[in-house]
Amino acid sequence: MPSEDKTSMEAADKQLVIALAGNANVGKSVIFNHLTGSRQIIGNWPGKTVELAKGYLRFENYDIEVIDLPGIYSFSTFSLEEVVSREYIAFEEPNVVINVIDASVLERNLYFTLQLMELEVPLVICVNQMDIALKKGLIIDIDKLQAALGVPVIPTVAIRGEGLHDLMEVAVGVAKNAPQEKKPLIRYGAEVEERIEKLVKFLKSIKLQLGYPLRWIAIKLLEDDEEVREQMESESKEIIILANQLAIELEDIHQEPCFSIINSERYSCASRIANDSQINTEIEATLSEKLDRIVTHRVFGYVVSFMVIATLLLWTFLVGNFLSDILSQLFGFFQPVDPVVSGPVISILWNGAFGGIVAGITLVVPYIIPFYLMLTVIEDSGILPRVAFMMDSFMHKIGLHGKALVPLILGYGCNVPAIYTTRILETRRERMLAALAITFAPCSARTIIILGLVAAFVSIEWALALYLIDIFIMFIVGRMAFKALSGETTGLIMEIHTLRVPSFSVVTKQTWTRTKSIIYMVFPLYILGSALVQGMYAFGFLDPISNFLAPLTVWWLGLPAIAGILLIFGVIRKEYILLLLVAIYGTNLALVLTPVQFIVLALIGMLYIPCISTLAILIKEFGWRPTIAIALANLITAIIVGGIVYRLLEFLIQSLIMI
Amino acid sequence: MSTDELQSESIQEYLEVIYKLSQNADKVKNSEIAKKMNIAPASVTQMMQRLSELGYVNYYPYKGVNLTVEGRRIAKKMVRRHRLLECFLHYILKIKKDRVHDQACEIEHTLNDESERALCQLLKHPDKCPDTRNPIPACDLKLSSCDECMKKKRRDLGEIGKRDQDVISLADPALKEGQKARIAFIRGGHKMIRRLLDLGITVGATIVVLRKAPFRGPVEIAVRGSNIALGRTVGSSVFVEVLGV
Ligand SMILES: Nc1nc2c(ncn2[C@@H]2O[C@H](COP(=O)(O)OP(=O)(O)OP(=O)(O)O)[C@@H](O)[C@H]2O)c(=O)[nH]1
Ligand SMILES: [Mg+2]
Question: Which of A447, A525, B24, B67 satisfies CB 3.0 to 4.6 Å to B72 for a cystine?
């Protein structure tokens, strides 16, 4: 149902903006995707959505713009996501805010709801994940909740689309009546309210234009919110003095810092409402709880953590190999893809381009699909936070805490979104350390190289060994960087959500979205690259470049000279290393490279530099200098490790022959 | 120094050692104590009997000892003073990390409550010692946060009073899985307290310890209906009163 941009003036009253706000991992993006047909990332771990996303929907003659906000726990301003959400809700003035809350964690979610109510925005509450609450034995009385909050409350199971139609109806209804309606208020304790009132009175008398509601400013001043205080200081010194004085009065009564007094008020309010409107029936341990015990068991937990990665890789190889064989046979019809090196230019280029297509279809797609399928299953099951929990103390060895494992594992899919996801970490230093480690994570493109070169032409054991070597290198480099970048490591603080069976529709859709982006955006590149390289090869442009790099590639790494070209192209897309080799030499690579060369080439391909898209995101997130440092760290590591491994393997083979 | 003081000093030393050794096991063997303190096993056995008579340890023949509530209280106080002093010697007096331990050992027995508190305030409520990076136990004053301690800077100790019940940190091995507890005190600056607060971890909230990861990993607690994992450093700054099992 996507609709046109809202520019025409006459339809102005038929347009609405609806924002989805709430705690992390409550299901905002599932609802957003369902309503707008968008493809926001979904998974069972907190912090997926980091920037606000827009989508469009047509509903009852309204053109509705829906906004998916990052999940946050409060409107303090300690993290970027909090500021993004707070400013959006206060200044962009959406017609209605849908506060999505997790039915199974009612109390803590209501704490955020109360803060939204302080902002006095038109509000609808969506109590999502009703199915999970029920499984946990929680029965929620929607009417009571609605009465206590004074705003419409709609129960939903977003994953099945249940209740979403009602939700939209009510939201549109609220938006229509919003301007005339009086906003409901939740009152806190008498001593606090008294002082809020005094501040509001004073604020009214000085008449400021601030965008935020006065009561909210009063509360934030009492809480000593830095941003608000700074803004107000420039407007009026007296208000700050008054606020301080009132805060001290409160502190004298409660013997606590004022911000914690106000938050206690919110929590006691949230706790009262939650207790009044939910019944907790005792039930036996659910399947999910039993599984949870295994996943975080002191022995099995580590086995499971290891299996997460191992399964991902083995599954990809086995299924990928199977699919690849079938597809190769189907395309065998067009085979052999032997390069054409003489004849008319057009036929050389055409042959190169065609080789690119065939290689893409037989070597890339069959691996990408099972890979992303499994990754999405892992992501949506909720196992990642458990792995983070178990591995926290190991991650401290490279200056990170357990949460950094989540982007790291996502890095096995693609480094780009993984580097985005480092935003779930607290400091810039930790984000950079994590980004460095991620650039060493063998993404799906590198997996294709390893499988296509080593597993296919040497052995699968060697392919797995490469992954282990990679983890080892990641650890060593990470530890060196940690020692070089001084600073304290933040402690882990992370919410852990219920384990669950991944949703079929989420998994299939997300796998398709990811596969599609490879096919649409990357296939043209394969085709172009293959044609280009074959053309260059036919006209003898490759030799000068290869020869220039020969001291490094041939002497130090023991590779054929052509490797220079492969590695240069590989910066654009790592798959080129494999694809161009096929474009130049045809599919039977065993004739061209020795087993040692396969291993070294795959190793170098895995380590030597982040691809262009990764470099771009690094520059965007961290700037030039850290990016250059990270790229150099990759390059140097690759050259050192590659040279050593080459010599070691040669030495091993020599001594084996001697025996 | 009178013989009494000397004796109490050596009792304190023993309790401290038992406390540290019991971070890794439920019961501490006499031989371990002897090794750690560099003393003949026979004299350790003798001392353990005395400590047991004084009500500081529970003595299990052939199995070892563990601390009683009172023994724990004294041991923690000494460990706290020791580690605070190490911080003072290292961060303020700039003495090298590897040399602060012995000096702290000597001063710790003569420090009193008032200077202990002043030291903690001066050092901005440190959470671990500089040399071994072990956590510093909480003070025994009736306070819910370091902020409160600073707010009440002028009030003396008598006015503030002592805690009714001993508090232990979430990272403490004595806190077992399945244990119910109430949060009594959170150490640390605004930022950390606010992050915890946003997740529902506030003084007064009731929690259940769900599990503890091995290798000094995080601890997972249930609070206000949600499950939250806290790394050991964070956990060692959240102190709870244990509620009936
Ligand atoms: N069983 C069940 N699972 C749900 C429901 N709604 C969402 N989920 C699951 O909850 C998880 C989180 O959903 P998201 O939509 O990604 O959450 P979000 O609020 O956008 O999270 P952030 O972007 O991290 O703030 C996913 O694993 C969903 O499959 C529901 O109604 N029932
Ligand atoms: Mg989201």
Answer: B67
ipTM greater than cut 0.85: no
Please answer yes or no on whether A78 and B224 come within 8 Å at the CB atom.
Answer: no
**Which residues 586-615 of chain A have a CB within 8 Å of chain B?**
none
Would you tell me how many other CB atoms lie within 10 Å of the CB of residue A96? 23
pLDDT for the residue numbered A5: 45
Identify the nearest ligand to the CA of A21 by its number.
1
Closest to B30 in 3D by CA, of B71, B53, B59, B73: B59
pLDDT band of A332, cuts 50, 70, 90: low
What's the average model confidence in pLDDT over A213-219? 88
CA dist A464 → A325, A365, A368, A579, A603 (Å)? 20, 21, 18, 21, 12
Question: Domain end: A280, A315, A347, which one?
Answer: A280
Q: Do A402 and A546 lie in a common domain?
A: yes
* Shortest-distance Cα residue to atom 11 of ligand 1: A44
* Residue of A251, A388, A390 with shortest CB distance to B151: A251
Using CB distances shorter than 6 Å, the residues near ligand 1 are A 24-30, 42-44, 46-49, 70-71, 128-129, 131-132, 157-159, 380, 500, 503, 506
Domains annotated on chain B, with CATH: 3-67 (1.10.10.10), 71-137 (1.10.60.10), 168-243 (2.30.30.90)
My answer on whether A364 and A440 are in the same domain is: yes
What is the 3-state composition of chain A as percent helix, strand, coil, each rounded to the nearest 5? 65, 5, 25
For A220, the domain range is 190-280
* Chain A residues with CB-CB distance to B231 below 8 A: 392, 396, 401-402, 491-493
Q: Among all residues of chain A, which has the CA nearest to that of B233?
A: A491
Give me the residue from B190, B200, B215 closest to A108, CB to CB: B200
CB contact under 8 A, A493 and B200: no
Q: Is the same domain home to A390 and A269?
A: no
CB atoms within 10 A of CB B34: 18
Q: What percent of chain A has pLDDT over 90?
A: 31
Distances (CA, A) of B150 to A367, B104, B122, B178, B239: 60, 25, 10, 34, 18
| Statement to judge: residues A132 and A266 lie in one domain | no
Mean pLDDT of chain B: 86
Highest-confidence segment of A151-160, A537-546, A577-586: A151-160
Is A182 within 8 Å of chain B by CB? no
pLDDT band at B13 (very low <50, low <70, confident <90, very high): confident
| Amino acid B37: pLDDT | 86
Name the domain count of chain A: 3
What's the rounded Cα separation, in Å, for the pair B239 and B186? Answer: 6
Which ligand is closest in space to the CA of residue A102?
A: 1
Q: Does A82 touch chain B (CB under 8 A)?
A: no
pLDDT of residue A2: 43
Whether residue A11 is predicted with pLDDT greater than 50 in this model: the reply is no
Q: Which amino acid belongs to residue B178?
A: G
Cis ω for the linkage preceding A560 (within 30 of 0)? no
The predicted-structure confidence for A400-438, as pLDDT tens digits, reads as follows 888 999 999 888 888 888 998 898 888 889 999 999 999
Q: How far apart are CA A323 and CA A367, in angstroms?
A: 8
Identity of residue A137:
G
Q: Is the four-CA dihedral A542, A544, A548, A553 of positive or negative sign?
A: positive
Judge whether A227 is closer than 8 Å to chain B, CB to CB: no
Separation of CA A47 and ligand 2 centre (Å): 7
pLDDT recorded at residue B145: 82
Band of the pLDDT at A474, cuts 50, 70, 90? very high
- What would the pLDDT profile of B111-130 be if each residue is shown by its tens digit? 888 889 989 989 989 988 88
Q: Is 50 exceeded by the pLDDT of residue A61?
A: yes
Q: Is A251 in the same domain as A317?
A: no
